[in-house]
């Protein structure tokens, strides 16, 4: 069990990592189920809603996402013998009582995802008015719940996903496309489940926490259309398979059924509860910083746009704090969340948090600002990498004539070139800046902590990130 030692202002790296750990812990499925779901006699309580379990012939769990396995396991613990099984698709399989937990891949869908989703849809089609369906849907569900629309193969869907993720499009635009090439997303699972009683249990990884965007909204009405989806491909120059473009054009011409609108009785009947959000994690991280003695600002849970540009704004805020004591006085902490994106133009390796960290490190050097910046994806997987994110200071990219790893240039010049090539991961690895946790069991988007020490403080070197991260039991 992770029990971080309270960090003093002279240990900014330890404070930042401990705060991130607290944020992730607060958003774990086990934590939020403890707080929001209970069973007493024959009554299931979800938030303020009550369900008479005796009124149903069966209670099943159907869902998917990074945290869906753990969420299913927590539900199984709550319901015990009152649960009749189900299917969830996740990239972190854990025991979940009678529920079948299918291991899939993330962030790119695979045949394993499609096979698990076929089993889920068969169980959904068997549901009737005597069935109570609890549907855990979490971040990562867009990839893990893979049901290609007729005429599209799983490989074509994987190719489309790769292209969308590299386009720099915001997640709601990406998911507008995903919904219209799927037989389960965009409210279509709700249609399949009707007339069962359906209760969606969401852990949100999107800014705004819109149920229509989380996991591409399998239970929610869809405000987008086939025409919107095709416009995304055009606007962001997405190299989509021909089968995808043919399908979208057929939908525009009225030859394919549109996704459900709010007037559709199936989605109108589904009850959706958002159990945890990015704010859940940010609030816990902010509390940890305050406890450690830092004046703390929760900047925003909706930071978006290009990762490298958002990083510059965060460093600018740190610089203002250092120079003027505004908007908070040092020693200070700035906590933020949301989801930044990367438009991939280069051939390197990295994710949004790695790119954010590298851009911040360069900016700290350029602006001569003293600060520590830690940034992670709360699921423990930053884009297509094995790292959760990174932690950097003004010492990560020194501008002191130090020779680069290839012996040809200074480290600052190398960092700038790596950023231009979307190649943050190997550079940050060599600078001992990566934060590696493995799957954390939840997904509520990105979480960042910026620590600005008091003006008299001497900056520390970046902490041994492996030690700090591995001291936490991320497998809980």
From TrEMBL:
The keyword Cell inner membrane does not apply. The keyword Oxidoreductase does not apply. It comes from the Archaea. Residues 333-446 form the MOFRL domain. Gene3D superfamilies: Glycerate kinase, MOFRL-like N-terminal domain, MOFRL domain. Keywords: Pyruvate. Transmembrane segments: none annotated. Residues 455-476 are annotated as: Disordered. Residues 18-248 form the MOFRL-associated domain. GO terms for molecular function: glycerate kinase activity. InterPro entries: GK-like_C_sf (IPR037035), GK_N_sf (IPR038614), MOFRL (IPR007835), MOFRL_assoc_dom (IPR025286), MOFRL_protein (IPR039760). One of its GO terms (cellular component) is cytoplasm. This is Hydroxypyruvate reductase. It comes from Halopenitus malekzadehii. The lineage of its organism: Archaea, Methanobacteriati, Methanobacteriota, Stenosarchaea group, Halobacteria.
């Amino acid at each position: 069990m992770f029990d971080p030692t309270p960090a003093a202002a002279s240990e900014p790296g330890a404070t930042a990592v401990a705060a991130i750990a607290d944020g992730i812990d607060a958003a774990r499925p086990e934590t939020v189920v403890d707080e929001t779901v209970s069973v007493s006699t024959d009554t299931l309580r979800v938030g303020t809603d009550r369900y008479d379990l005796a009124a149903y012939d069966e209670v099943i769990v159907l869902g998917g996402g990074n945290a869906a396995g753990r969420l299913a396991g927590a539900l199984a613990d709550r319901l015990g013998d009152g649960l009749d099984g189900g299917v969830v698709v996740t990239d972190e399989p854990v025991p979940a009582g009678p529920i079948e937990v299918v291991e899939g891949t993330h962030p790119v869908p695979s045949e394993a995802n499609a096979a698990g989703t076929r089993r889920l849809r068969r169980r959904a089609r068997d549901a009737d008015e005597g069935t109570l369906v609890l549907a855990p849907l979490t971040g990562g569900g867009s990839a893990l719940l893979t049901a290609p629309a007729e005429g599209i193969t799983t490989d074509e869907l994987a190719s489309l996903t790769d292209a969308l993720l590299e386009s720099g499009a915001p997640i709601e635009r990406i998911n507008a496309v995903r919904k219209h090439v799927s037989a389960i997303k965009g409210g279509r699972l709700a249609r399949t489940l009707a007339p069962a009683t359906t209760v969606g249990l969401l852990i949100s990884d999107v800014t705004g926490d819109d149920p229509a965007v989380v996991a591409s909204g399998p239970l929610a009405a869809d405000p987008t259309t086939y025409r919107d989806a095709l416009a995304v491909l055009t606007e962001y120059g997405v190299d989509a398979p021909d089968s995808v473009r043919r399908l979208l054009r057929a939908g525009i011409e009225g030859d394919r059924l549109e996704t459900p609108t709010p007037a559709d009785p199936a989605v109108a009947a589904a009850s959706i509860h958002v159990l945890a959000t990015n704010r859940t994690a940010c609030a816990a991280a902010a509390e940890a910083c305050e406890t450690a003695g830092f004046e703390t600002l929760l900047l925003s849970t909706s930071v978006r746009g290009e990762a490298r540009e958002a990083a510059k704004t965060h460093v600018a805020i740190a610089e203002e704090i250092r120079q003027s004591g505004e908007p908070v006085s040092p020693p200070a902490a700035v906590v933020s969340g949301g989801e930044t994106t990367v438009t991939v133009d280069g051939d390197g390796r990295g994710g949004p948090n790695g790119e954010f960290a590298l851009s911040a490190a360069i900016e700290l050097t350029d602006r001569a600002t003293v600060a520590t910046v830690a940034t992670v994806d709360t699921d423990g997987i930053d884009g297509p990498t094995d790292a959760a994110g990174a932690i950097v200071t003004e010492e990560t990219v020194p501008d002191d004539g130090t020779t680069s790893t290839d012996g040809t240039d200074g480290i600052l010049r190398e960092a700038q070139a790596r950023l231009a090539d979307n190649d943050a991961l190997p550079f940050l690895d060599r600078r001992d800046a990566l934060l590696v946790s493995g799957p954390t069991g939840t997904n509520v988007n990105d979480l960042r902590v910026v620590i600005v020490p008091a003006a008299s403080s001497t900056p520390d070197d970046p902490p041994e990130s492996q030690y700090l991260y591995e001291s936490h039991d991320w497998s809980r």
